[in-house]
Specification:
The protein is mainly α and 186 residues long. It has seven helices and no strands. It has one domain: de novo design (two linked rop proteins) (Up-down Bundle). It is rod-shaped.
Length: 186
């Protein structure tokens, strides 16, 4: 009789552990999804600002149509990317294209002093900061979710219920490079 109580207690403990582990994984999975949605919100803001910037500079930059079309193409690729890996690669290309556009704007005195362009640049910089924070938060939650799936005993529940690891939102290798700054007087 005593061993029956012990067996029942063990079964109850195992069931409670399984439920708690499963619920913990589900909670983290939803947090990963939510964090990804926050990135999407900031990326949409970025995508909405880019056409305004392109339209503002288009008239003054008649000879720079190639740069403008690269920005538009990079934006289209970024909008259509779905997975975090694809988004990361497309965002890297878009960042490069925008960097070239901003470098060209610096060569046009009328554009450099244009209030609309300055405001759009400021909004894009603010949005880039928000994207950076959202990406960091997403990757932190993704790491917690992935770690939870690989540690014992939660790994058992993760494999039984076929949980998939979250992809990290990684930046393109070119975005990781330290920019070269030349402050030499010429």
């Amino acid at each position: 009789m005593h061993s029956l109580y012990v067996l029942a207690a063990i079964i109850i403990i195992v069931v409670i552990w399984a439920v708690v582990s499963y619920n913990g994984l589900i909670t983290l999975m939803h947090q990963v999804d939510n964090a990804w949605q926050q990135i999407d919100v900031q990326l949409k803001r970025r995508y909405d600002l880019i056409p305004n910037l392109v339209n503002t500079v288009k008239g003054a930059m008649e000879f720079e149509k190639e740069t403008l079309s690269r920005v538009i193409e990079a934006r289209a690729k970024a909008v259509s990317a779905v997975t975090p890996a694809d988004k990361g690669m497309a965002e890297g290309l878009l960042t490069q294209a925008l960097g070239k556009l901003f470098a060209l704007v610096e060569q046009y005195p009328d554009l450099k002093s244009n209030k609309n362009i300055l405001q759009l640049q400021e909004e894009l910089v603010s949005t880039e900061n928000r994207i950076g924070f959202a990406r960091q938060f997403y990757n932190d939650i993704a790491a917690r979710f992935n770690i939870k799936q690989t540690v014992f005993p939660a790994v058992i529940i993760a494999s039984v219920f076929n949980f998939r690891k979250a992809e990290y939102f990684q930046v393109d290798a070119s975005d990781k490079a330290v920019p070269r700054v030349d402050l030499g007087m010429k």
